[in-house]
Amino acid sequence: MTPSAPISVALVGFGMAGRTFHAPLITATPGFVLRTVVSQQGDAVRAALPAVRVTPSLRDALDDAATELVVVATPTALHTEHALAALEAGKHVVVDKPFATSVADATRVLDAARRAKRLAVAFQNRRFDSDYLTLRALVHGGAVGDVVHMDSHFDRYRPLVRDRWRERAGPGSGVWLDLGAHLVDQAVHLFGAPLAINADLMQQRAGATSDDAFLATLRYASHRVIVRASSLAADHTLRFVVHGTLGSFEKHGLDVQERALAAGAHPGGADWGVDPEHGTLTVPQGDDMRSREVRPIPGDYRRFYEQLRDAIRADALPPVTPTEILTVMRVLDAGVESSAARREVALA
């Protein structure tokens, strides 16, 4: 393919992830063309994407020589199988988070990518959340000094257990792999690999058969990162609290892009990713404290696909590196071990 040729994509799965995130972002990002959707929901795909080819067969999509990139948006337990099949067919692959159900399976996929000389990238879209981009800019800019503590929330109020794979007992289910994958990735992206983790994975709702809440402490040499999620948080606006040697930052409200995408909004435009809820930076001023509003940096999930395009076409760094993928998976695995053993688990 020439450097200017659009990257032809096969999207595998048209559930929440495929329909709400990947299809709109692929079609809205210059340099990509969504060629095929692999799904049993043919009528739903055709209604949403009338110009796209639909097939129920993964093999049919992989045999299409024109397809360069396969995006795996199937249930987590199928991620490794589908990613390996795509790589064996000579395609680049994006795998929705979590990348795999274990670090062993993640390693298998990344080893296959190296052998095939293709990219295998985890879809970590929340690196491009408005709140996280704002926090990252403040930390890297020294606004809070050296971080000593960070509290990262992804809470919701969903008191009823739903009959869906994410909430049934089994490989890949539960909020630790679902939401924990986001929060752990943000911590790793911001601070690197932690030294250890102490995690508590819980089932708090009546009838829950997989974890629906977690509280985990990531231990770094000079600071701690707390990541937590609950399905029973009626007040679930708190997103970040960060304390440092020069000040504190607090942010309420979740990034607006998911809600916009779920409502059918097309990514783009002057207001895309603009968060109406400002954060608060508090710093000492003499013997007192002074607080000021911090206007959030707009979020844009298309940046993931823009960086992926440049990695495929221009040999740039991928949006998520293999080292970062393995680090996140090691933390997630260690969190399961820590919760089962009720102790801190060191990370190699």
Main features:
about 350 residues; alpha/beta; Rossmann fold; Dihydrodipicolinate Reductase, domain 2; 9-stranded mixed beta sheet; 6-stranded parallel beta sheet; 11 helices; globular
Can you describe this structure?
The protein is of the alpha/beta class. The chain folds into 2 domains: 7-123, NAD(P)-binding Rossmann-like Domain (Rossmann fold, 3-Layer(aba) Sandwich), CATH 3.40.50.720; 127-300 and 331-346, Dihydrodipicolinate Reductase, domain 2 (2-Layer Sandwich). 33% of the residues lie in helices and 24% in strands. The strands form 2 sheets. The protein has a 9-stranded mixed β-sheet with strand order 14-13-12-11-7-10-9-8-15. Helix 4 packs parallel to helix 5 (103-116), helix 5 (103-116) packs antiparallel against helix 11 and helix 8 (180-191) crosses helix 11. The longest helix is centred in the C-terminal third of the chain and has 20 residues, at 322-341. The model has no long low-confidence stretch (mean pLDDT 97).
